[in-house]
Amino acid sequence: MKRIEEYVRTIPDFPEPGIQFRDITTILQDPDGLKLSVDLLLEQLKDVDFDVVVGMESRGFLFGIPIAYALGKGFVPIRKKGKLPCETVSTEYDLEYGKATIELHKDAILPGQKVVLVDDLIATGGTVEAGARLIEQLGGEIVKILFLLELKGLEGRKRLTKYDVASIIAYDGK
Ligand code: AMP
Question: Cα of 50 to ligand 1 centre, how many Å?
Fold first, then answer.
């Protein structure tokens, strides 16, 4: 069986020059890759007591939902502005060029609920930091943040020092 790293496809200069895009579709399209990636993420949660999985749109959904399903928990999406139909909390964060807004349904997290937050990849950490803000605004307690991939060169963990953060594959550069 291949190692999980071998299922990731790296595309140089996408979506712009200088970016090494880490493509996870090649993990998901392979039955062994899909199983291995979810199993490795589940291993990180074996001693974690939690109530609900929250995933970041959209690649956080791809891993967050199988994790929640396997462990018998619910799943809550954090979505880009304007997609969630009920009352939301929202927050803005910086992108490389410009800003983005993400939202979470107000009634999706109850005060005191223990949350595992999932995304596919941590680069600068800005996206997940914003997601964590929304969860905490509703009184949720983040007990673990999980990524499949980490770009260590961008030092995203520095924004998340107060959390328990884990990743499965870490790349030294960006
Ligand atoms: P950041 O907020 O900088 O941590 O960016 C994280 C988000 O951007 C994740 O949801 C990733 O899906 C996406 N992303 C950033 N850099 C890359 C990359 N090199 N390859 C693939 N996805 C990336």
Answer: 26
Provide the whole-model pTM.
0.98
First to last CA, the chain: 27
Q: Fold for 46-171, please state it.
A: Rossmann fold (3.40.50)
Residue 56 phi, psi dihedral angles, 5° rounding = -90, 135
Structure tokens at 138: 């509703």
Residue 6 DSSP one-character state: G
Indicate the length of the chain as a whole number: 174
Query: Which of 127, 147, 155 gets mutated to test ligand 1 (max ligand atoms within 8 A of its CB)?
Result: 127
Between the CA of 22 and the centroid of ligand 1 the distance, in Å, is: 8
145 beta partners: 117, 165
Burial class (CB in 10 A: 0-12, 13-18, 19+), 44: middle
Q: Using a 6 Å cutoff on CB, does residue 116 contact ligand 1? A: no
pLDDT in tens, 72-125: 999 999 999 999 999 999 999 998 789 999 999 999 999 999 999 999 999 999
Distance from C-alpha of 114 to C-alpha of 38, rounded to nearest angstrom? 20
